[in-house]
Every structure is written in structure tokens, then in C-alpha cells.
Amino acid sequence: MLTARRFPSSSTIRPSATRRPPRSKPMPSGAPRHVEPVGRPERELAADLRDLLDARLYEGMTLAEAGRILHVSPAHLVRCFTRTFGIPPHRYVIGRRIEAARRRLLEGEPIARVATGVGFHDQAHLTRHFKRHVGTTPARFASPRSGAS
Predict the structure, then answer these.
(1) Are residues 102 and 61 in the same domain?
(2) For an engineered disulfide with 8, which of 12, 24, 71, 85 has Cβ 3.0 to 4.6 Å away?
(3) Rounded to an integer, what distance in angstroms lies between the CA atom of residue 93 and that of residue 77?
């Protein structure tokens, strides 16, 4: 048989007994919430990540792989990159792939070949990102301008 538990009434609990002691000293106002790791500066890590991303732009690279190469956590890489360049690494990679796609489309290469050649999975993947970045579809971008001589 179940018996009801008896809890002390709120008047019998002392306020000091209900609070936990702080685990560490409170942060002074205006101080950053994160602790900077000892080691390489953020700008250097961000530049190294950018170089890695540029070197493997079309094949792709996971942040876990980059973290293993640079000996830091993937989350720290994202924070460093975003603080240094103002955009997250994924947006940087997509932007670079779109730039490459624009050049190849203007040279007359077929859209499907451009999509897979610059690192997108298929033409629809390229079209979705291209439209978001450029404001038009790859087909319209690549089509000859009417009235141009």
C-alpha cells in the first residue's frame, strides 16, 4: 500500500537551506561569457579554417574533420570564424560555391554540371542557394541578355 509523503510546510524551511551556494564567482558586468582557451589566437584559427575550407571547397569538409586537423573543438571553430569574418563557416562555403558557379555559368557550362562541379548535390540544391544569394535562378542568370549586342 502506498503511503503519502509528508513534506515540511513552507514556514518550516529556512531560506538559507533552499539556496545552493554559487559554484564560482559571478562574472563582472560587461565581461565575456566564454573563457578564451590558452593557445592560438582566434583570428589565426579562423584564418586556418578559411584556408582549409578553400582548399576543400568542392569536396566539402566537416567541422569535426577541421577540428581534428586544427586541434580544437568544432564549436570553438565556428565561434572564432563567426567573430572574425562576421558569417558562419557554412554560409562562407555556400557563398564561395555560388561565386564559382556564377563564373562557370557565364562561361556557358550546363547548370547540372556546374552544380555538381562546385560542390552542390544536384541542380535543385544549387538553384535554391543561388536564388537566395543572387536573387534569380541559374538559368536566368546564364541566359543571354536580350537587346545586348
Answers:
(1) no
(2) 12
(3) 14
What is the distance between the alpha carbons of residues 88 and 91, in angstroms, rounded to a whole number? Answer: 6
Burial 19-40 (b: 16+ CB within 10 A, else e): eeeeeeeeeeeeeeeeeeeeee
The Cα 101–Cα 95 span in angstroms is 10
For residue 135, give the DSSP letter. Answer: S
pLDDT, tens only, 21-32 = 555 555 555 545
H/E segment holding residue 82:
helix 74-85
Output the pLDDT for position 2. Answer: 55
The reported pTM is 0.69
Do 94 and 63 form a contact (C-beta atoms < 8 A)?
no
**Whether 119 and 97 share a structural domain:** yes
Number of structural domains the chain divides into: 2
> What are the tens digits of pLDDT across the range 56-74?
999 989 999 999 999 999 9
- Identify the CA nearest to 105 among candidates 57, 130, 144, 138: 138
* Whether the predicted pLDDT of 34 surpasses 60: no
